[in-house]
Request: fold
Amino acid sequence: MQSSVIYMIGFSASGKTTLGKIIAGKLNYHFIDLDEAITQQQGKSINTLFDEFGEEGFRKIEKQLLVNTIFLTETVIACGGGTTSYSDNMDFLQRNGTVIYLEVDEAMLLERMLDKTAERPLFKGKSKEEISSHINELLTARKVFYERASYTIKNNGNEESAISSILKVLE
Reply:
């Protein structure tokens, strides 16, 4: 295995947390969800932080926590969907761990997002058409960062296949 820190990246609802926990368990690693760590540290939900500080303020908080991961070993970290496109975060991830991009097609992202829009500040209160358009817009902007990952793994619904692919590239 190349690095003892594995960063899971990808769009919201791409499976970073779900698969990250499973991979951590199989490797006997620790698991951290960056968004969850932020809410614990700040004592506020992601939605509240976005409301209070805007996306820019939230990204600064996220960056501070991300930088602290430099001291970790044997850990799988699920990053937020926009983590890679802020500041020099993608460079940081590449320097300090193995980066795995979970790629999901837009139709499946839309399907997954429709169930959880209230939890996701960039999609809260939007119609299905607005969500679809926003997914396309954000995915287009973020893909240039996502595609710099060490490995790209398709995650279009077959969880076992994705897990198997991740474990294979980490050997």
